[in-house]
Design goal:
Structural class of chain A: alpha/beta
Strand order of the largest sheet of chain A: 5-2-1-9-21-20
Largest interface: A-B, 55 and 56 residues
Radius of gyration of chain A: 22 Å
Helix content of chain A: 25-40%
Distance between the termini of chain A: 35 Å
Strand content of chain A: 25-35%
Largest sheet of chain A: 6 strands, mixed
Oligomer: homodimer
Number of helices of chain A: 10
Shape of chain A: elongated
């Protein structure tokens, strides 16, 4: 694999998510050679994945070829392959085909995988929502359920087909439930003849006490009301006991459903297990105040794969903002090392959090500021469009959104691939 | 399945391509119940499939949910299922799960499937290009070849990865070869570090004497020159003897390649074989002057699944224009039957043909008019945008195109799914 020219230090960045991308960008003018490795060929705007899953946007709208983003940054090479193992002593990373890459600094941003709490067999029946492929699987299952219901005369079978269960009421679960509620109540309203899509039941289940637990309780309550307005049935304090073909067991109840989506848990990428350094209970690598592994200042872990304790905010959440700031911080540490300056500790700057619940409704929390309803939704729309700059023509995306949100149209509800 | 109300005759339309769609639309105000059945959930703008395969457009840009197109036409129900067999005597069609649908009139527009001339085993190594799933497979193989070449140090292996073979130089093959040539020479130019995408070899093979055989010889010659300008090697009069993992045998030569695409042949859909009526050598159903099956005036076959002899043009080609006109004509015959008027014979009105060869170049032939180069390309762009009205926001599509063609950008080069 590409060995950097002698004398120029090599920075290997694993993962082209928000953290990896920021780190590579921040080293554009540093005297280093960079290699950015990812198992997919694209950077993904993960917070909008639920919009691909529910046909609001196409896959192209929220993803861009990673190498295209860096085509003019000449000190980085982009390699599409999956890093499976790191040998910290040898300063070497290995991909699935055994190819070795040596590094002087390593920035690990491999993200998380869907976690079924020891029930790996649930995965087949309740896909998660972490990748574009996941989103296309969820889209296919949701749309196919309506299609099959239209040609299924048996009322019980039809009811199961029109029951959608979302497990986990964090941001992904809430946004997904809201979008499916919109789909059933508005987008598909005129499209069927034998069924009325508004008969669809959308169930959002969570073992915790409230939806969006990272938000203030008042916003959780508002989000719940907004979900119910869209016909979503929210059940909190309910534990899922089993998931199988055509059913979910929630508490004492067995729910017949053909489309279950899992947004209840994640774990750090398996790669982290090969480091031999401490992981937390969710398999995330525990890092020091500078974001580096204890005993290995040349190895950073950034984004949701890292367990970071912040003096002001406690354990930081696995959101894009944290990943971006950690990525930039890792780059700053590398520049400090190059200049033989001391590193600074990482300090998170909280830009707040946002969740959207169907058309025109959102909740927003920035420090003491709390906003709900349409003003929060406008904020959400602006923030998201801003993020999309650079890898997507902003005008096109805004037109798409305008069309979807004001006309309830999703013409491109295309099913591709088989299960 | 949905039985029409007693007394209202039922028209079953199989296939939501150009022919099926036109037929259903033309019966919007007829006193009939319509069922439109397709094995996918979308109408596909097939002439632009090569643009999805080469990442010019996303899947959403050329496909639209069929039921969404007909949401306001209340006399049609759309069913997503595949019709596998027709019992002409019983006037009944059966899907893969054995569900029966009775009809008074049947309009068969099932299209064609890729034909490997008796070498079914070639399919795995040389996908065709008939569906969105096909296009995503071709896209994945083409983009993955560049990705793998970037991390492959062995020169021979790298050369094989950068060799693209397209078998069949009809419109699809020519347009695909041109688009891959554009991709290698312009779009990807700055994106790699270890390879130069311009080293890629694009081979277009055909057993016949010239490319685009349905066009005038002067336009074939011009198309060939335009292809060569894009770095495409055109080899006519060459027969493909074998296709296997990593190779194509063309004439006496064995070409090492990891991405072969088959655009050399098609056959009528297998469903036609269950009719028991005469088929031609390409498995297309032979129809009478009104487009109906001989002896079965209640059954029409339209589009490329039909073998139609036209008084002026001979056997009609399998293009969108023929399908649309036949679909409309079948609807007119049904209206004539309802009114107890005599049917007219089908007469094709030739609107000409167009093929595009990379950015800014096309060939156009309408009756005696022959156009090539940029003027033909402008005509192509206008015709295609016009077709897209109704199932896609024209403004968005035009912006996408403008971006792609003037800036050579294809940011959304997203690989989804595994092979």
């Amino acid at each position: 694999m590409s060995e950097p020219p002698a004398g120029v230090p090599h920075v290997l960045v694993v993962g082209a998510g928000f953290g990896g991308l920021r780190c590579v960008r921040a080293l554009a003018h540093a005297p280093v050679r960079l290699t950015l490795v990812d198992r997919t060929n694209h950077h993904l705007f993960q917070p909008m994945l639920y919009e691909v899953a529910t046909s609001v946007l196409g896959a192209n709208e929220i993803a861009a070829a990673t190498r295209h983003l860096f085509r003019h940054q000449r000190n980085v090479a982009v390699h599409m392959t999956g890093i499976e193992r790191v040998d910290l002593a040898a300063k070497c990373a290995f991909d699935g085909e055994g190819r070795a890459t040596r590094y002087d600094w390593l920035v690990l941003a491999p993200g998380v995988v869907t976690d079924y709490f020891g029930h790996a067999d649930w995965a087949e029946h309740a896909p998660g929502l972490k990748s574009l492929d996941d989103a296309l699987v969820v889209r296919r299952r949701v749309l196919m359920a309506f299609e099959r219901a239209e040609i299924t005369p048996d009322p019980a079978a039809r009811r199961a087909l029109l029951t959608f269960v979302i497990v986990g009421a964090g941001a992904t679960g809430v946004e997904l439930a809201g979008a499916i509620g919109e789909l059933a109540n508005f987008t598909l309203r005129h499209d069927f003849r034998a069924i009325d899509p508004r008969e669809a039941q959308v169930l959002l289940l969570d073992a915790g006490e409230r939806v969006l637990p990272s938000f203030a309780p008042s916003l959780s309550a508002r989000a719940r009301r907004d979900l119910e307005r869209l016909g979503v049935t929210v059940r909190t304090g309910v534990r899922v006991g089993d998931i199988g073909p055509g059913f979910v067991v929630a508490g004492d109840e067995r729910i017949a459903t053909e489309a279950t989506i899992w947004s209840a848990g994640t774990r750090g990428a398996p790669l982290l297990g090969t480091l031999g350094t401490p992981l937390d209970r969710q398999g995330r690598a525990i890092v020091g105040p500078d974001g580096a592994l204890p005993g290995h200042p040349e190895v950073f872990v950034v984004g949701d794969a890292a367990h970071v304790e912040d003096a002001r905010f406690g354990t930081l959440p696995g959101v894009a903002q944290v990943a971006m700031q950690m990525g930039t911080h890792a780059a700053r540490c590398i520049r400090a090392d190059l200049d033989a300056r001391p590193r600074r500790a990482f300090a998170y700057f909280d830009k707040g959090q946002l969740a959207v619940i169907g058309r025109g409704h959102a909740v927003l929390q920035v420090g003491p500021v709390r906003l709900a309803g349409f003003p929060a939704w406008i904020a959400w729309a602006l923030v998201h469009v801003t993020f999309l700059i650079g890898f997507r023509n902003r005008v096109i995306t805004m037109l798409e959104w305008a069309r979807t949100y004001f006309f309830h149209r999703r013409a491109g509800r295309v099913i591709v691939g088989g299960d």
